[in-house]
Structures are given as C-alpha cells and as structure tokens.
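Hey, I was hoping to borrow your eyes for a little while. I've dropped the whole record in just underneath, so have a look:

——
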Amino acid sequence: MVKPMTRALAPLWLGVMALLNASLAWAEDVPAVSADPCTARMGTARTIELDVRGGAEIGTMQYTDTLDLAPGEIVFTFDDGPSPDYTLEILDTLDTHCVKAVFFLVGLYADRHPELVREIWSRGHTVANHTWSHQLLHRVGPVTGGREVERGFDAINAALLGLQTEVGEPAQSAPFFRFPGLNHTRHLRTQLAGDDIAVISCDIGTDDWRRISSDSVYQRALRNIESRGSGVVIMHDTHARTATALPRLLDTLAERGYRAVHLTASSHSSTLSHTTQITTQADTDQPHGGEE
C-alpha cells in the first residue's frame, strides 16, 4: 500500500517544489527594500567641524571665505527663532528628510521658550547666537552691541542647562554668531574673532523674510541654490511660508542630487561662561545687509 500512495503524492510534491523555485526566482528579481529611511531622502552627507580659534568669517554674501563644500552640498541655517508657531513644524520636516541644520536663535525668544531650544539641540541640530533682541547692531554703539551678543549666548546656554552630550559634556551654544539683517560692524567683528567666535553669514538667500508666498520662497530658494551649486543657505523658522515651502524644496533638491552638510564647531570651542569684552571704540563700518 505504501508504494501506490507514494506514486499518487509525487505529482503534488513536484508541483510544490516548482512553485517554491518560482517564488525564489521572483524574489531575486525584486529590489531590496532598504531599512534606512534616509535612503530616499535628501539626507546629511557629512559633518564639518569648524575650527574657530582666532575667529572665522564665513559666507560670500559678505565675506571672502566660505565653507569647503563640494558641488551639491548645502548647509541649511534658520534665523530668528525659536518660534512656538513654526519651529517644531520645521524640525519635523528636517527629521523626515534626515537633514541637520544650524539654528541662529534670538536670546529673548530662547528665554521665553527654553523647551524649544532644548528640542532643537536634542534632535541633533546646532544652536547658535543671533543676539539677545535682534537689534540691528550697526545702529547701536559698541557697548550695547557687545551686551546683545553676550546676553544672547547666556540665554541660549541657560535654556540648555542640564543637558549633556553623549560623552557627558554640558550642552551649549556653538561659538557661532550671525548679525541681525547681516548688518555687521568692524568693531564687533574684531571682538568676536578675539573671543574665538565665528561670524556665519551666508552664500545663498531665499527671500523668505519678505512678504511673499510659499511658492515664491520655493522658487527663489531653488533658483538661487541651482545658480550657485553649493553653499550656506539662510532661511527663517518664524514664517508659515518657510514651513510650507521647506518639504517641497527638500524633495526637489533630493531628486536633483543635493545633500545636506551639518556645520558644528570643533570640540575645543566653548561659549559657556562667555563674556564679551567691551571697549569704547566707536563703530566705523558702513552697514551691509539685506536678510532679516
């Protein structure tokens, strides 16, 4: 009885084996799905640790030098926050697209919303100083200007108090400063360099500070990035138009092969217990600006 049953089952087993072999062959032709959610996104290609000893002035919109970026590499920066209305939305967009950025924070707003400062830092972004109250420093004297810088750093570091890096170092603002409206003065530039603080301007504007539509922000940002090919981009995390334009912009840049670069400071740089030495030297520079 065993042999007849074996003969009867043989065709069934042959059919099962043929189906299994066909399934394996089909599986070999299907592209593997990456477990990395950043594969199809813009992503952050690398990190630049800027050595700020003796100061640095970065951004060809104002200065001679900029970062050593390859074609298609973009450093994203956001000014004027933290904003309770839009900063979290922008952080979520950056997370979705696996992009790390630099946030130049206004100390007054950092003092009002320390939880947002902590959130920005905790998500792996660089936090930096954009003065205490966003005064245009070319319109004030050197003492007032110096206090704006000092209070900005103090407010940001106070908001970060208690947070630590993976190696147990206290969280702090990067030793980066951006002049409000990009209106610098020779005196403060010299003073910042003496304090080992880098002045970060930009290479590429987006006009998102103007009262334009989100589509205009997208079009202008894309046009300016494509025109230059790489560089430090300035945006603002305080406007609905920026929050709306950003996902589309990052999608398009990813499709065209652009990658983000994260700007940080070298590990020896510190802004804790930062004190700006104030002199009575008069400001002599002419203003140079255009980005709020």
